[in-house]
Amino acid sequence: MGLVKRTITGLIGIPILLLIIWWGYVSFLFLVCGIVALALLEFYHLAQRQGFKPFRFLGTLCGVFLVILIFLNDAKLSITAGGEENSLLITSFLLLFFAIRVIKGEIAGTISAIGITILGIFYVAWFSGYLILIRNLRPYGMQYTYILFLTIWILDTAAYLGGVKYGRHKLAKSVSPHKTIEGSIAAMIFAQITLFITKWCFFDSLRYWDCFIIALILGVGAQLGDLGESLIKRDAGVKDSGNLLPGHGGVLDRFDSFFFAAPLLYYYLRFFCGA
To answer: Helix, strand, or coil here: 22?
Structure first.
């Protein structure tokens, strides 16, 4: 039943996402902002289950604003388009959160409240900002973004099906009891297959060596992102971060694999592919 729900959700959601990636620019910004807003709300809800008191809605607004600033800077649409703006924004967040605690006279839990709020902004919003940076790369930003999404979708499915069919040895039993070494190997294999098929079908200019490295980066980054979110959920004592996406759980569950994979892909493209 779970696989049926996953399939139906995928059949509805994947074409929409692929179309938005093709459109790019502002439409893709709206997509990422939506992902960040929903994922941050889920993250802060998990934190609340552990007794933390984050600035849930304010932190979510700050996270979305950070993504917008990343977009403006990258598109050279902001006033100075300089990296100093991101530092200024984080500094402003901290000043705002401290000011609210001082005005309210709340002393107990100040460190944990501000710390968990900032962690959510970095973990969800900052890492998601790399999706914007990859899509805006010229001239192949759209192709690289398709590679990122398609590879992670396929390797996630391969890990799930490979684990169900052949899984015998646990990958990280205390963190995610259902993930297996066999499933992880299947994910890495299908990541390689996806990259080489992508090259042959619509991205001939991509070098064979880059296909191998990008598949390796995405395979490792996606699975570490998945395990990282599983660590947070186990700490909060829940199976899923939410129930918005039938068969997938919450938005955080669906996009956790991108949080580590996207930055790794971006820096590889920038440093080694001349993007």
So the answer is: helix
Distance CA 135, CA 142 (A): 5
Q: What predicted TM-score, i.e. pTM, was given to this entire model? A: 0.87
Residue-range domain boundaries for the chain: 2-272
**Which parts of the chain register pLDDT below 50?**
77-82
Q: What is the Cα–Cα distance from 95 to 98, expressed in whole angstroms?
A: 5
Distance of alpha carbon 57 from alpha carbon 172, whole angstroms:
33
Instruction: Give Cα separations from 28 to 9, 35, 102, 198, 240 (angstroms).
Output: 20, 11, 38, 22, 26
User: Tokens 């889920």 belong to which residue?
Assistant: 42
Give one DSSP letter per residue of 178-227, joined into a string.
EEEHHHHHHHHHHHHHHHHHHHHHH-TTS-HHHHHHHHHHHHHHHHHHHH
The pLDDT score that the predictor gives to residue 250 is 85
* Nearest alpha-carbon partner for 41 in 56, 25, 63, 28: 56
